[in-house]
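Lab notebook, bench 4. The sequencing result for the construct came back, and we need a structural model before the next group meeting so we can plan mutations. Quick request posted to the team channel:

Model the 3D structure of this chain.
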Amino acid sequence: MPLIHVSLFEGRTIEQKRAFVQAVTADAAKTLGCTIESVDIIFEDVKKSDWAMGGRLQSDPAA
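Done. Here's the predicted structure in token form:
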């Protein structure tokens, strides 16, 4: 059973998440040769202040 963990900035709508889940589930099942029922996806909504890249918080203004 594949488990797909998705971390992203908070603020996506339920409709966006639903569309993502449908697309990724179908592609994962096809690629991995499993049923769509066996594909699990977990979303982790992350605040920009809890995500850093290149030595700066994503909530900080761009330099």
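The mean pLDDT is 96.
Will bring this to the meeting.
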